Structures are given as structure tokens and as C-alpha cells.
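Mods, move this if it's the wrong board.
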Amino acid sequence: MNRRDFLRCAAGASASLALPRRALPLNPPPLRITGMSFLRLRFPGRTPRRRNATIESGGGPPGMTQLEIHTDAGITGRSIPAGGSEIITGQLLPRILGMNPFHIEALWDRMYRHNRKPVAKGLYISAMGSVDIALWDIIGKALDAPVCAVLGLFAEKVRVYAAGGYYEEGKGIPELVKEMESYVGEGFRAVTMKVGGEPMDVDAERVRAVREAIGAKIDLMIDANNRWTGFEAVRFGRMVEKYDPYWFEEPVEADDFEGSAQVRRALSIPIASGENEFTRWGARDLIQAGAVDILQCDTVLAGGISEGRKIAGLASAHHVPVSPHGSPHMAVHLLASLPNALIMETYPAVESRHNLALPLFPVKNGYIEVPKKPGLGIDPDPEIVKKYRVS
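Not the wrong board. C-alpha cells:
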């Protein structure tokens, strides 16, 4: 059995769960959406300046923005939006104002279809995802249950990997190796590193050094961030195949489905992609093109938890495991409810200094426990809000 086949079998091998599902009530509480606002926090210091294969990021003051959806019962739903604030307040709020958050499918459909033209991709869908997740937070809080329990739990633990391995000024192979080893020391049993930002021979040496440092029992992902053409990605994949990567993430440009399929056919390394796709229809096209072994649609960007469930169901019908990109505090609820969840992207402890209001999950033997607080469990401490709020 090669690694690709192993991953598909392993997708269903999550821990069993004893907690019951909290079903949505037949006659939901008479809640009504009354408005929206944004909570903006800024923390001291600066984030590190770093790059992947295609873009640079960081270097500014750390902070967090939360979307707040208010109800007439005093319950506030929260999410961490991924852009589109003007769309949220200007286009989405008027469509759902006065509706009951428990009518979650009707709300999603109304946001999507009651537009001048249905939009299958872009910031509009990401804005919808932000709203949808905040609505699930309201539902969980109203039922006094974590969202994952309301969805129907499949596992009480979720496997995670440490997202890192960026290029930074003054960071060579020794520093990269030390970083990866530190993640293993925190309890991670899977780590990811960037490739595509240096010449292929340099990146292949980086992969070799990390693999030798962390050993064969730690899973090592490589992420090219859409850097190469199909034949270039095949060339690099063959250079590092002997180091047994757990997956090869976004080897080609996001719209090059055929190129991704070409890489997938040529290599034994599983191909992971989808963070740049939106909705179940984008996921369908990616799967039908034979372009992925592991689907990575972002929980927020692709349309929210409601749409994430549909995407996962579609993937399951094709025996494709899912590993959503980013947003771990929201993605964990979705993943804990899915039989075809593979592993979740999260961040190492060092990243906690960039967001004082949202602590990261403790990692033990490569897993985290599912959240136990009602809703999403992302409400910030009032004292932190008072100290760091930006008007």
C-alpha cells in the first residue's frame, strides 16, 4: 500500500466519541438577528517578516478582528472574518436581518441566491463564510453546547500539524531544522515547510535536512504555494520523493487543474490542494479533474461550516479525505464532526504571542481535544478587550 492509498484509509480512523449530538430543535427558540459589528484588537510588538514561494507577509502590528452578530436575546455570535467587511455589512446584513439563526440553511441560501448575480467565487463567498460561522456560534450558545456537538461529533480528538517552515531573512538550514525540531518538542507529530522559494537543489537540501533531523516517524508536508508549472513540480517531486513527504501541497497555480493532475499521476506523493477554491462547486471541479488526493478548502473562505459540511460530503463520496486550510479555532468544530477528516492545520506555541486573546490548543502526541465551551469558544476575555480594543 503506497502513501496515497494509506491516507485514504486513515481518513476514517479517527478516535471514537462518546458525547451525543445536540440536535437542532424542531421548534427553534424565537431568536432574531438584530445587527452586526466588528471587534478590532491590536497587540504590542510586530509580526515577523516572512515569505513563502509567492508572497511576503508580516512585519506589522499583531491583532485580531472578530465579526459579531447580535440577536434580540442578547446572544452574540462570533467568527474571525477573512476580509469582505463591506460586503458583510452592506450586502449580507440586509438580507438576513430579522431572521432566526436556527434557520441556518435558509440563511446561507438567502445570502447566496438573493444577490444581483449568484457569485460562485471570491470575497462574497468568504464574507458569507464569516457570517455562517458566527451564526453557528449563536446556535451553539443557545443550546449550551459546543458547535462540534451540535453538528454531531465523530471524534473527540483531532490530529493536527504545525504550520511553519517559512523563508526569513537570516534563516538558513540550521535555523529551519531547529524550528521543525521545536514543533516536535511541543507534541506535534506532523510539520509543514515551504518549498519553491529557492532554487530546486537548495529546497531539496532543505527537505533532506529536515527529514533527517525529525526522523521517519514524524510526518513532513511540503507546500509550494502554487509556485510551479506541472512539469517543474514533477521534477522537484522526484528530487524529494525519497524523503517520503506526507503530501505535496499546491504544487502548481491554483487554476491549473490539469497541471495538478499531471503531478498527481507522476508522483507517489499525495497531492493536497483546494484552499483557493470556493463552495462545493469549486471542490467538485477539482475532484473531477483528478487533481487532488487531499482536499483543503478553507472553512471560512469556501463558505463557512454549512458549506464545509457539503464539501466534505462530496469529498467522501469520492473517497477523498479533507484537511481544511487555516482558521483552526473554527475548523476544529467542522473536522470533529467528519468521518473523512484527515488532519488539521494549526500553529505552534510561539504564535500565541501574536494573539493574546485567542490561545492556541495544547498538543499532545499530535492531537488536540475538541472544544468544550458553548458555541465556538472564541469569546475573548473582557479584560483583554478593554486593554487592546481599537475604536
